């Protein structure tokens, strides 16, 4: 082997191969760091979304509790207990319709069921000929 070939071989072994190994190790570290940052960001975002959903559900729960606590709803519980197909009266229809129209982004309809789980009435918002949203039973 000539001297030039020996020098090329020594140069390659002592400089190029260690540089390649350092570069490969650095790539693994960088990729691992990027993955770690993305996982942490994803975990934080998931936690934020979970908190938002929980707060929205709590707001809906309190609104539904307010609706069920109205005197018209309590008065409706007596006729529905006696007749499984009793329809809501005027005051309760207005309360349910008002609730549905104010919450139409969160609720597509309100379905009243009896104790057996059978549907009694359904109120859903529909637009009339003028394009105004109105509740229909």
Secondary structure: elements and pairs:
Blueprint: H1 3-68, H2 71-82, H3 90-102, E1 110-113, E2 119-127, E3 133-136
Antiparallel strand pairs: 1-2, 2-3
Structure notes:
- This protein has about 140 residues and is α+β, with helices and mostly antiparallel strands.
- It is built from 3 helices and 3 strands; from the N terminus they run αααβββ.
- Strands 1-2-3 form a 3-stranded antiparallel β-sheet, covered by helices on one side.
- The N and C termini lie far apart (about 100 Å).
- The mean pLDDT is about 80.
Short summary:
This protein has 137 residues and is α+β, with helices and mostly antiparallel strands. Helix content is 66%, strand content 12%.
Give the tags.
137 residues; alpha+beta; 66% helix; 12% strand; rod-shaped
- The N- to C-terminal Cα distance equals 98 Å
Percent range for helical residues? 55-70%
Mean pLDDT: 81
CA-atom Rg in angstroms: 34 Å
Which quaternary structure do these chains form?
single chain
Number of continuous helical runs: 3
SS-derived structural category: alpha+beta
Strand order of the largest sheet: 1-2-3
Overall body shape: rod-shaped
The tally of strands reads: 3
């Amino acid at each position: 082997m000539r001297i030039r070939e020996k020098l090329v071989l020594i140069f390659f072994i002592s400089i190029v191969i260690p540089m390649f190994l350092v570069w490969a190790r650095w790539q693994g570290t960088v990729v691992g760091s990027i993955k770690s940052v993305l996982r942490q960001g994803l975990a934080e975002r998931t936690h934020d979304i979970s908190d938002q959903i929980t707060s929205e559900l709590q707001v809906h729960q309190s609104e539904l509790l307010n609706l069920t606590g109205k005197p018209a709803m309590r008065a409706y519980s007596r006729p529905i207990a006696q007749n499984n197909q009793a329809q809501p009266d005027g005051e309760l229809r207005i309360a349910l319709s008002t609730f549905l129209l104010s919450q139409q982004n969160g609720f597509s309809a309100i379905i009243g069921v009896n104790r057996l789980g059978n549907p009694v009435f359904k109120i859903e918002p529909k637009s009339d000929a003028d394009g105004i949203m109105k509740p229909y039973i």
